[in-house]
Amino acid sequence: MLGTYALSAGYYDAYYLKAQKVRTLIRQDIIAALDQVDVLLSPVAPTPAFRLGEKIADPLQMYLSDIFTIPVNLAGTCALSLPCGFSAGGLPIGLQLIGRPFAEATLLQAAYAYEQATGWHQAKAEL
What is the pTM of this model? Predict the structure, then answer.
């Protein structure tokens, strides 16, 4: 419903067109960074995983937990996440690998190399 509103007469230029311009800038920045390296690394989320049901009553906190994955989706590049450890409280932490559009093979090779060098993909969180 919000999308229909933003595309309605009078709001196209105010919202949709500006959003597309911002999306283009984000894509250009990520592609420019990938001109220097094969893969970018980032956290998957700004905090360790939260406990099941913990943030369900706070939609803003749920949205903010995706803040590192949203630019990749907007840019149309590829990415994957891997386990890379646990917080002091025993909650899992994820590592995001970001690659060029259609460079899934490069990402999978980098992820495999990471898994071979670490044991995080075999570690289990305490329940």
Answer: 0.82
